Amino acid sequence: MAYIMVDIESDGPIPGDYSMISFGAVLVDEHLDMTFYGKLKPISDKYILEALTVSGHSREETLGFEEPKIVMENFANWIKETCKDRPIFISDNNGFDWMFICWYFHHFIGTNPFGFSSQNLGSLYKGIEKDTFKTFKHLRKTKHTHNPVDDAKGNAEALLTMKKEFGLKIKF
After folding, report:
1. d(C-alpha 89, C-alpha 83), whole Å
2. pLDDT at 17
3. What's CA 9's distance to the chain center, in Å?
4. To which H or E segment does residue 140 belong?
5. DSSP string spanning 31-81?
6. Residue 79: partners with Cβ closer than 8 Å, 6 or more residues away
7. Average pLDDT of every residue of the chain
8. DSSP 3-state assignment of 162?
9. The predicted structure's pLDDT at residue 167
10. How confident is the model at residue 171 (pLDDT cuts 50, 70, 90)?
């Protein structure tokens, strides 16, 4: 299996009514050098300024981003070219990140290369520690900047640390 760590930034809480502004993905392996970065033009007139501000982009700037269909086609092609095996979606907050990625794939290209499931990095770490109050965030090396590639890379580093230091049985 090929684990793809994903992080998204949006201008609101749900896809369709609001827009995914950008996302980053990294193939989880020892190098973390296979990345994808997409910046998407909004699909709705609605946005929440506080949510948009987290992305580091202004509304005016996002209006110049690429058409979502093109970005999602490019991402699907990147997944196909990058993954030698079945791609597995994993993220820090898969309830949020998956919701947007899955919706955008199905809405704009009619299929999701990840299939119908995702994995949550935080829940995985809680299971390793056997403590639902634990967080993995101290295992990141790359600073969490809300640039989605940086954030996906930091989360991938945490997953690699879980394998190395905690003996997590996972194959990359």
Report:
1. 12
2. 98
3. 9
4. none
5. S---EEEEEB--SSS---HHHHHHHT--HHHHTTSBPHHHHHHHHHHHHHH
6. 4, 25, 87, 113, 114
7. 97
8. helix
9. 92
10. confident
Residue 171 lies inside a defined structural domain of this protein? no
Domain count, the chain: 1
The amino acid that residue 52 corresponds to is L
Stretch 150-167: mean pLDDT? 97
pLDDT one-digit tens code per residue, 98-136: 999 999 999 999 999 999 999 999 999 999 999 999 999
Q: Report yes or no on 109 lying in a domain.
A: yes
Considering the domain boundaries, does residue 172 fall inside one?
no
Per the structure block, which two tokens stand in for 133?
A: 């109050």
Q: What are phi and psi of 81, to 5 degrees?
A: -75, -30
Average pLDDT of 19-35? 97
Q: How many CB atoms lie within 10 A of CB 16?
A: 14
107 exposure class (CB count in 10 Å sphere: 0-12, 13-18, 19+): middle
Range of the domain at 157: 2-166
Identify whether 60 is part of a domain: yes
Q: Determine contact, residues 17/51, Cβ cutoff 8 Å.
A: no
CATH at 71: 3.30.420.10
Long-range contacts of 137-145 (CB under 8 A, 24+ apart): none
Max CA distance (Å), the chain: 47
